[in-house]
Write a structure and sequence with these properties.
With 220 residues, the protein is of the alpha+beta class. It has helices at 11-26, 31-58, 70-79, 88-97, 157-167, and strands spanning 117-122, 133-140, 143-152, 174-177, 184-192, 195-203, 209-218. Strand 6 (195-203) and strand 7 (209-218) form a beta hairpin.
Length: 220
């Protein structure tokens, strides 16, 4: 039968400890003292384990995996870029309804006589760049293009792409991978109302996933 002992205790010291305990017991010593010694040892081991756990936690080791942000990324994207807003003002209204903030304040109505050529950004307060939205409106007024994107960290890309397959009518995507950078991309292209819709999803080694929707706006 093996007896677990504390780390760093040599075989000779283990034997001496067991011998001393037996001698003390055989001589009619107080067995409660032996139990207390054993309990003290367990308490010391527990304290060492607690200290180790605290150190590991401080370095981010041994903690449970962070929550996957894929579901939230899909929902936020669905309520903003996926709705194909035709102007920065329209996208601003959608974003603000979800708590986003534009660095320049509310977006003013655009000039309908001017060809669009504008870049806009929105962020969620206290989220940094996580779930940030960027949008580029460019082209001739009669037919211009919108490139609307969002990204998030800690996303399981396989589960995220599966959600897109399940919740949309998109065809199978074209996939590409870059062994050097670890970047994996998925692309869907759909003809829509005389224009073209392109959805791109890119995943990176650090757990970040970006989703970008490029679509045409035709003024009729």
């Amino acid at each position: 039968m093996s007896i677990p002992v504390g780390p760093g205790q040599s075989g000779d010291s283990r034997k001496r400890t067991l011998s001393n305990c037996r001698a003390f017991s055989d001589d009619g010593g107080n067995r409660a003292s032996i139990r207390m010694s054993a309990e003290d040892g367990r308490e010391g081991s527990s304290m060492r384990l607690l200290t180790l756990a605290a150190l590991l936690a401080a370095f981010g080791i041994g903690e449970a995996s962070a929550e996957d942000n894929g579901g939230r990324l899909f929902q936020m994207f669905q309520k903003t870029c996926a709705g194909k807003p035709v102007s920065a003002e329209a996208l601003d209204a959608r974003a603000r309804g979800l708590g986003y903030v534009h660095p320049d304040g509310p977006v003013a109505p655009e000039d309908p006589t001017r060809d669009p050529d504008d870049i806009h950004f929105w962020k969620l307060p206290e989220q940094g760049s996580n779930f940030a939205i960027d949008a580029y409106f460019t082209g001739r007024r009669a037919k211009y293009q919108v490139v609307c994107g969002m990204h998030a960290d800690t996303v399981d890309v396989a589960a995220f792409v599966e959600t897109l397959r399940r919740e949309t009518t998109l065809p199978e995507p074209q996939t590409k991978s870059d062994p050097e950078t670890g970047r994996v991309s998925y692309a869907w292209t759909v003809e829509a109302g005389g224009g073209k819709d392109v959805l791109d999803v890119a995943a990176y080694r650090n757990g970040r996933v970006s989703i970008t929707f490029t679509y045409d706006v035709i003024v009729r």
